[in-house]
Automatic annotation (TrEMBL):
Residues 72-378 form the Tryptophan synthase beta chain-like PALP domain. The keyword Ligase does not apply. Gene3D superfamilies: 3.40.50.1100. GO terms for biological process: isoleucine biosynthetic process; L-serine catabolic process; L-threonine catabolic process. Pfam families: PALP. The keyword Lyase applies. This is Threonine synthase. It comes from Micromonospora chokoriensis.
Length: 396
């Protein structure tokens, strides 16, 4: 294993990677670091196509040492699909969609769960607990079951019903709260405090290894493009783990010498009903203030106070990116338009990225001829209410 240590991006303190860790003492999430020169000597990009088509093909850049602890359902290596009809319509002729809806449990959350659960298993965790907006909970419950680890999942009542059912099917201890993910987080904190160390906090970025699974989206995009970067990557941002992970992946690839110095411009997409990152980015702030009365049909990005606000904002600015808020009505219209033209039903969070792409191209931020990758983070079939069928005629 090439994992060397964990470090704190806020205060710079290093932490050992051979024991369980949550946040740094200063309150910041921790980031996993690797001996990249040794990785560069051990493997080259030409080797990856000879390996299985899952995220574990990048095992030298992942934090699990003993393969016996790898907990997998074949996650990763999702398709990067061209969208020429819709792209031409909005003026982005080189538009691609990374479709995470085909991954186990139907969302990109399986990446973080696979690596996070595998590392937790390797470090001796017997039960995890976490708040969730839905998909992360169902993914972690599923992978915990496969690893033989207990899981306590707390989610809002308004979360997609299929996620609730997935948790129950996986045997998780599911608890519901009448509120937002922030309310679920407070309940999880209480449970962990009461457990006296018997439950490990696996909440978003409260442990360092979920991000390592999510960063593999960045590796895959680059490999699928022939080890070239796109000009723009557009990502639906709630907790922001995937955006931070993709940014981390690009830095690692650059340090390995597998890509050039240029980085893709990252776009954080939020809803006008919950846009703390967009507001902070526009104000030039380093931290985001909590969003009051958060609500959006794109439930996965309803995160009024993301823990990793500093890291999200830093990634946007370092990559010369931006942050955009879109309206629910617009994203639902784009969801239908895209499905009709390209034959792919996106999740509402993925559709929000299309709306952002359309607006950014119309405003000139995305330039003619640029290659743009949109992340569809989940299967549209998990959100049946996004498509209104009330007007469909019934034949007699």
């Amino acid at each position: 294993m090439y994992l060397t240590h964990l470090d704190c991006p806020r205060c710079g303190r290093e932490h050992p990677a051979d024991r369980l860790q949550n946040l740094c003492g200063c309150g910041s999430p921790l980031l996993a670091r690797y001996d990249l020169p040794a990785v560069a000597k051990a493997v080259t990009p030409e080797r990856f196509p000879l390996r299985p088509a899952d995220l574990w093909r990048y095992r030298e850049l992942l934090p699990v040492g003993d393969p016996r602890h790898v907990t997998t359902l074949g996650e990763g290596w999702t398709p990067l699909l061209r969208a020429p009809a819709y792209g031409t319509e909005i003026g982005i002729t080189d538009l691609l969609v990374k479709d995470e809806g085909l991954i186990p449990t139907g969302s990109f959350k399986a990446r973080g769960a696979a690596v996070g659960v595998s590392r937790a298993r390797e470090l001796g965790v017997e039960r995890i607990a976490m708040p969730t907006n839905g998909n992360a909970g169902s993914a972690w419950a599923t992978y915990a079951a496969r690893a033989g680890i207990g899981a306590t999942i707390v989610m809002p009542l308004e979360a997609p019903g299929i996620c609730r059912r997935e948790c129950v099917a996986a045997g998780a201890d599911l608890r519901l709260v009448d509120g937002l993910i922030s309310d679920a987080g407070r309940r999880v904190a209480e449970l962990i405090a009461e457990s006296k160390g018997t439950i490990f906090d696996a909440g978003t970025l409260r442990e360092p290894y979920r991000l390592e699974g999510k960063k593999t989206m960045g590796y895959e995009i680059v490999e699928q493009l022939g080890w070239q970067i796109p000009d723009v990557i557009i990502y639906p941002t709630g907790g922001g783990v995937g955006l931070i992970g993709i940014h981390k992946a690009m830095h690692e690839l650059r340090e390995l010498g597998w890509i050039g110095d240029k980085l893709p411009r990252l776009v954080a997409v939020q809803s006008t009903g919950c846009a703390p990152i967009v507001r902070a980015f526009a104000a030039g702030a380093d931290r985001a203030e909590p969003w009051e009365d958060a609500h959006t049909v794109a439930f996965g990005i309803t995160v009024p106070a993301p823990l990793a606000d500093e890291l999200i904002l830093a990634a946007l600015r370092e990559s010369s990116g931006t942050a955009v808020a879109v309206d629910d009505a617009d994203l639902l219209a784009d969801l239908r338009e895209f499905a009709g033209r390209e034959g792919l039903l996106l999740c509402p969070e993925g559709a929000a990225c299309l709306t952002a792409a359309r607006h950014l191209r119309a405003g000139g931020w995305i330039r003619a001829g640029e290659r743009v990758v949109v992340l569809n983070t989940g299967a549209g079939l998990k959100y049946p209410d996004t498509v209104d069928v009330s007007g469909v005629p019934v034949l007699s």
